[in-house]
Write a structure and sequence with these properties.
- By secondary structure, this protein is an alpha+beta fold.
- 36% of the residues lie in helices and 20% in strands.
- The chain has ten helices and 13 strands.
- The strands form four sheets. A four-stranded antiparallel sheet has the order 1-3-4-13, with no helix packed on it.
- A hairpin with a 2-residue loop joins strand 9 and strand 10.
- The chain is globular and about 50 Å long.
Length: 312
């Protein structure tokens, strides 16, 4: 399937891209950057929020960056990872392994929702300890619970992208009709049915512990893992991961200075693109070669230099 008309292509670009002008470093992001320091995230970038139409987050350079240099290094212990074993280890449907492989995004979204729910529950759990003060009186002190998932609380609260992208599967019929392309509309409609099926599978395969996770929560998680996770093929297994900081990088093609990433055994690194970046300017990641309709369906936008037929 390809986008057929220049009119449709221009419409997609004008309605789904955002002009980023005003970069804001909020107090909540300061908390996130402090968390990054504590957890040994080495970086020459900062997460910023964009003030104005579209909002959202991005990365900016905290110094002048040279082409090809490592500008971000995130320990893999801080990433949220998913591979097919995550699903197969907890479900008795090995015969559907191939379908589960195709449904990786839905399964990853389920894992993310459950992990976020676990972190929220642990936040509410405290341990009360009595101690005797220097004045001889007995006092009670509440200590929050500590666990590996609690380490991710600040990331969940402040560091993750604010929302998943507004994808065509979420559009109204009137919005879809503006595309003037029946093939794209059909793909978006099928994608919406797939999304609903994934949520129903989540409901059917989990007990009442997770009834607090709404369809909106699940769809947000699905949008995030679809558009923001990195892919690694290792030992013939496809693995995806969400990486703090890196998951806020917006797209730019290689020609426009978009950077690249490398997943090592202990960390995930971001390399500066071939044009370098001045201090205070946006740092982008090249999302890879995609056709215009693929960018639209899975990322919610079409790059301005993504020509028909798909060179980005």
């Amino acid at each position: 399937t390809t986008i057929k008309t220049t009119t449709t292509f221009a419409l997609l670009q004008s309605t789904t891209t955002t002009s980023h002008n005003n970069k804001v470093l909020s107090s909540s992001l300061e908390d996130f950057h402090n968390w990054a320091d504590e957890n040994k995230i080495i970086r020459s970038v900062a997460v910023c929020e964009y003030d104005g139409v579209g909002g959202g987050k991005g990365l900016i350079a905290t110094r002048d960056l040279k082409p090809g240099e490592i500008i971000l290094s995130v320990p893999r212990s801080l990433t949220i990872q998913y591979d097919d074993d995550d699903y197969n280890n907890y479900h008795d449907d090995a015969n559907n392994a191939e379908q589960n492989k195709k449904d990786w995004a839905g399964n990853f979204a389920s894992k993310l929702c459950k992990l976020q729910n676990k972190v929220a529950e642990e936040e509410a759990t405290t341990t009360t300890t009595n101690y005797t003060g220097m004045d001889g009186k007995v006092y009670s002190c509440n200590f929050p619970s500590s666990s590996p998932s609690a380490l991710l609380k600040t990331y969940f609260d402040y560091g993750m992208p604010r929302e998943g992208p507004y994808l065509p599967r979420d559009w109204t019929k009137d919005e879809l009709s503006q595309l003037q392309d029946e093939d794209i509309i059909q793909l978006a409609t099928l994608d919406a049915k797939w999304r609903d099926k994934q949520y129903q599978k989540f409901v059917d395969t989990n007990d009442e512990t997770f009834t607090c996770i709404t369809k909106e929560d699940y769809n947000r998680a699905l949008g995030l893992v679809t558009s923001r996770s990195l892919e690694l093929n290792s030992n013939n297994k496809d693995r995806r991961m969400l990486v703090p900081f890196l998951d806020n990088a917006n797209h730019a093609s290689k020609e426009d200075g978009g950077g690249s990433y490398s997943i090592g055994s202990t960390c995930v690194a971001l390399f500066c693109g071939n044009k370098g970046v001045k201090e205070g300017d946006e740092v982008c990641l090249n999302y890879g070669h995609r056709k215009p309709e693929e960018f639209l369906l899975y990322y919610g936008f079409v790059p301005t230099n993504c020509g028909q037929g798909g060179k980005d």
